[in-house]
Design a protein that fits this description.
Elements lengths: L5 H17 L2 H9 L5 H20 L5 H27 L4 H19 L1
Helix pairs in contact: 1-5, 3-4
């Protein structure tokens, strides 16, 4: 039995990553849960825009660029929190974690079946 080297596996993973992930039911469900399907999703993801506008309106600095940077940072932070809240509501594990598990499972399978 020939075992796949780490380099061969990484090449295999790079070529087949998309198909292997799409074949995993939990990965497909996680991708679907991150889509904006309901009105609540739209409100949750519109919230960062509202926060950015409020911050821009409130920003006390004379520098327009600094005010925009603060507004952008606020929007990014609130967006990340919105994604986190959505994942907590739907009970979805992070996609990166699922992908790492699929990759590790495929690595184990390729070592035994090559």
């Amino acid at each position: 039995m020939n075992q796949m080297t780490e380099k061969e596996f990484e090449t295999y993973w790079a070529q087949h990553r998309k198909q292997l992930l799409e074949a995993n039911a939990e990965y497909r469900e996680a991708i679907e849960n991150y889509k904006m399907n309901t009105g609540a999703d739209w409100l949750l993801f519109a919230f960062p825009v509202v926060v950015a506008v409020v911050v821009l309106d409130w920003a006390p600095f004379d520098s327009e660029v600094l005010n925009w940077v603060i507004g952008a940072v606020a929007a990014v932070v609130v967006f990340v929190l919105s994604v986190w809240v959505k994942s907590m509501i739907t009970g979805t594990r992070p996609i990166s974690q699922i992908e790492e598990e699929v990759k590790e499972q495929e690595r184990r399978n390729s070592c035994h079946s090559s």
